[in-house]
Write a structure and sequence with these properties.
Helices cover 70% and strands 0% of the residues. The protein is an all-alpha fold and 187 residues long. The protein folds into 2 domains: 87 residues, Rna Polymerase Sigma Factor, Chain: A; 79 residues, Arc Repressor Mutant, subunit A (Orthogonal Bundle).
Amino acid sequence: MDLVTDEQVADAITGSREGIECLVADLWPRAFRIAFAFCGDSSIAEEATQNACLACALHVHRLRKVESFKVWFTKILLRAVAKERRRMRAHYNSLNRHAPIEPSHENVVLVLNAISLLQKPFREAIVLTALLGYSSGEAADILRIPAGTVRYRVHRARVKLAEELGESFRHYDATDETVGVGAYETL
């Protein structure tokens, strides 16, 4: 969503078909990566991303502030992921939590695999803040919890990741480009 400009959002809000198509096309890759980070399954992530982009196209005209688009769309996307997971769970009775990840850097693979093993509340907090670069306040809005709870969950997630990864994790910081937003963009 960092690739989406305020002008694109404003154009889509006016109802321009071309504006909406351009917005959705630019949203898709990053939205898929976010959905995949939350569910760890490419088929669920793809379906949720499609549903979220459709909802965005149908309802973007209701958005009042261009600046709130990022949080607004992320909420839609995360609800779509949750809905798709429930649908798949009901249909297949269990999901494969460890879909193959093919990033370009070995350290990113180690960290993302460890993140996928975290309990959902900790995984959501660490993905939103450390990988996607949201502030604790923005993550709190998305998750509908207090910002202090987000900070606590991020702290606990980092402790659990350090335990899981041992010495290899201690060499990397969540703001380091090899683990943070910069590397995540390559996924």
